[in-house]
Amino acid sequence: MVKTGNFYQEMLAKIRPLRRANNSSVYQWKGVNPEEKGKREVLSGVCGGCKGYDCQTRVHLEDGIVTKIDGNPESPLNHGALCGRGNAEIMSLYNPYRVKTPLVRTNPEKGLDVDPMWKEVSWEEALNIVTDRLKKVREKDPRGLVVIEGMGNMESIIRTPFCNAFGTPNLVASRGPLCCIHYSSCLVHSSDSASSDVEYCDYFVTMSASLGANFAAVAPTVRCAKALARGMKLVVVDARSSPEASKGEWIPIRPCTEYAFLLAMAHTIMHEGLKYDVWFMKNRTNAPYLIGPDGDYCRDPVTNKPLMWDAAANQARTFDADFEDIALEGAYTANGVDCRTAFSLVKEEFAKYTPEWAEKITTIRAETIRRISRELVEHARIGSTIDIDGFTFPYRPASVYNRRSNNSHRWGTMADLTGKIVNMLLGNIEVPGGVQGDGIRGPAMVPGEDGVCKPHHEAIPSPFKFPPDHIDGTEFYPNKHTGPHIMPKAILEPEKYYLDYQVEAMIFCGGNPVKSTGQPQVQIDAIKKVPFVVTCGIHIDETAILSDVVLPEHLAIERFVVKSPPRTQQPDKTNYGLHVAYMRQPVPQVFDTKHLDDIWLELAERLGILHGKGGVYDFTNVMNDYSKQYDGYCFKDEDKLELDNTKYTLYDIFDRRLRGWKAGDGRGIDELSKKGFIAHRRSEKYNYPYYYHPDNKTRHPFYFLHLKKTGEQLRADLEKRNLTFPGIENMDYMLDMYSAIPHWVEHPDADAPEEYDLWVINWRTPYFSTDTSNVSANPWLLEINDDDPFEKDGVYMNAATALNKNLKEGDWIVIESLYGKTEGMLYLTERLHPEAVGIPGCRGLSTIQSHPALGKAPNWNELLPLEEKTFDPISGAMECSPRVKVYRK
What is the rounded distance in angstroms from the CA atom of residue 578 to the CA atom of residue 679? Predict the structure, then answer.
């Protein structure tokens, strides 16, 4: 019995009695529309089976029913290729476990195994309930609303403007705490991420990074396969022999030690006589800049510009002067200040990281590290050039590639920056065959006042504010990627995180931090503490079952969308210089669902924040893609949304943005709908940012002064208020990582008890890399997954390790870290490092109302720490590989 005066009692009084169809207690499937009988058509689509949202599809319908999904052969992005996830979206569309109509909770008790006792209600009733609660939250303190987004719906264009208009700073991305790959690329490439130019690459070293599943899109996998077919050598440094490793050379490495391998490679290139790109170092980086005793640039007293040493003239000059011979190494006195070149300082730090030192840490033989380093330099062809469309580029067909698993450690940013250092030694940044920033078009690497390319996005620190506004630790992690793992701790202990407000409402839309971070119970406890919770979702997942209201949203295939994506990852000649806009023609909706952006617009109108200055439309006018300054996929002045009482449809908004697209020549959706995309191709040379800033027109940071300055400012902000990091007593423990030069850092579990003798690892699988459309319960994908010997729902261990522990295949075992435990069936393999224990995919965890296929896999996330001492202080990344012990249950 619900108590009188309780929120649930008040809510029940507002909703009408449940309407039944044919006396049934469940929502009824719609029959075939008679008008669709005998009709056959093919719609242009964009796949939503993964986080990529860029594989174009053809969706075949008969009688209004989807019968087939395949790749669009005319697509300039995926060229007709489509993976199993895309084909299987039919099963996601007609999944009987989808939320079919708005639901309101009637049981105040909450838990994954607690029946919410849902009431089916109309959209009008559900939106009224949500609006009433949000009005009260906004009147009290807009910061009390937390909106959680994620890869389940990355296509929303109204979510951010809604949060801005509401007044909450708490738009929290649940994606990314275990995939913090952006900071280093934002700093070195002025781009959100980076990938190797496989079209021209001959030697590719990948560090614990999948070239297929990690991308979660089919096109990059195809491009890598083509590169391998033409002879590119692939070296996979990983604790697991992945499918990619079978196509190249597998270098087994002890988990969590990739950073040591990278440091040793940099040491070998700089200290053991290998040829590095001296011209690139002198002209394309800040390596020759003179550094004073304070670690800052030595500057000209008049212009304040950084100085370099002219060895021929035996004097210091500003970096932009004419030099006869730039000194890359050495110690000098400039303007009475003793200084050294940045290169000398980096080289001195790396002197200690010998291959022999790394061998003890990584278990990789010193001679193997030297061989890989030597082969990398040889294949880089330092000094060679290539002519593309009349422009001469440096040609460097070799690269080192870091990604998810290597970056999700306390030292993850340092490791990624060290990988950048290795690539800069090869001279391969933003040139054919090397490493390029993803998502950049045009002259992105604009030099700042010091001549170094300006930091981008996550490399630009968020301003400090006290008391903090953000629930996810932004003030203490100014360069973090995302903070959903920080959020629950701040909700449960706001005083510890210096917050002066309480979270009153949460809205989940495409994000599920219960499943995507660590220690799920902490997230559950935090959600249960929040008075009002809403999920906009497609099925009853872990956040939905904890919600007070569930608003069913369209599946991706049902959503109308128009996009102009950034440059695709792993580009090749088929899309170099390509600018494309594409659309998804939505299929008929199956249930009583809505487009997420229509939900945002409807709530905004009801809340009175849709129109006027500071309203959703106002913020929508300025909220555009990062590429807007180059592509112009944004509103022209004459097409901006009016701030009066005009009500726009999503069609109107997309059409106006498309007309502003520079590459589209003013064409709108009517033109786009003819074949689903508009493609505009420019010369291949425009694909490389080097073209826009050649020679010494811009420089990449080899010495990471910007990071050092960020740490110094953060220290000053904290000390001014006598603060420290939440959960950390010694501020130096965190700020030590804000260093201009990478240095070795021990794993937080280095001193774990002896019985924790293994390291757990996780890898994304081809079928379940992300769970954007509940693919984890897709029967077609489950069927083929069961046939894959390295993707079954269980725990994988090296056969020799299992023998030493008296374990055998088929045993039910427990995996326990210092932070949690999970369990599953044991599978034995020779394809894991002896000190690794592996759990594949993103499965595990479930609710009593989830698809029965869920919850059968071990939950890797249970093992992960939420302790601040384990976080990367720069990116905020969680530790993805804690030490564990295993035993038979």
Answer: 7
